[in-house]
Amino acid sequence: IIIIIINSVPKSTVYKNKWAIQIFREWQGQRANKICTIEPGGVFKGEDIGLDVQELTESIENMNAKSLNYWLCKFVQEVANKSGGRYPSRTLYNIVCSLKRFLVEKNGEGALNPLAVSDKRFGTFRRVLDAEMKVQLDAALLFQQRRMRKKPSQTKKKICLMGTGSSNLLLNTVYFYNGKLFGLCGGEHRNITVRNIRVSDDCLRFEENSSKSFH
C-alpha cells in the first residue's frame, strides 16, 4: 500500500518538493544567526515567541509551531535565488506549498500546516508571506511599466522597403512609382518594358501597350 501511495504522487510534485526543501536547507545552512532574536521594529515581540523557539540548526520537520512560525517568516523575507535576486511572488508561494507537502510526507496527518487559516499559531507567518508576495508583485509590475515606457526606437526595428541599396529595394521602388504615377494594375507590371517609357527634357512619358483594353 505504501508503494502505491508513493507512486501515485506526480513526478513534478516530487521534484518541486525536493527543490523547495533544498532551497530551505541551503538558506538554513548559510544564515549566520541561527538563534531567535527580537529585532527592533520587527513583527515579533517577546510574548509572541517565548522560550519555545528552537535554533535554526533543527530540521524543519522537527520544529514546533512557534519555531516554524518564526523561521518561515525569516525564510520568506531573506531567501534569494542563485543570482541573488528575489523569487517572484508566485514562485515564493509555491515554495511554501512544497515545504508544507514535505512536512506532511515526513510527519503524516499530524504535520503542521502553516498555510491553514484556522491555525492562529501561524498568523504572523501568513501576514509576512502576504506582504512579501505583494512587494514582489509590485516590483514585477514596475519592471513591466518601465519596459513599456521605452522609446519606440529602442524597441522597434526600422524596416526599409524602398530605396537603391539593393536590387530588391530598387525593384520595389520602381514597382511602387509605376503604379503611383502611371496608374498601372498588377497584371500590367508584368508586360511593361523599357520601350513603354520615354524620358524627355521636361517630362516622363509612358506609352501603353496596344493590347490594353478599356471598359
Automatic annotation (TrEMBL):
Domain of life where this protein originates: Eukaryota
Stated name of the protein: QRICH1-like domain-containing protein
Native organism taxonomy: Eukaryota, Metazoa, Cnidaria, Anthozoa, Hexacorallia
Transmembrane stretches, start-end: none
Domain QRICH1-like: 16-133
InterPro entries linked: MAVS, QRICH1_dom
Pfam families: QRICH1
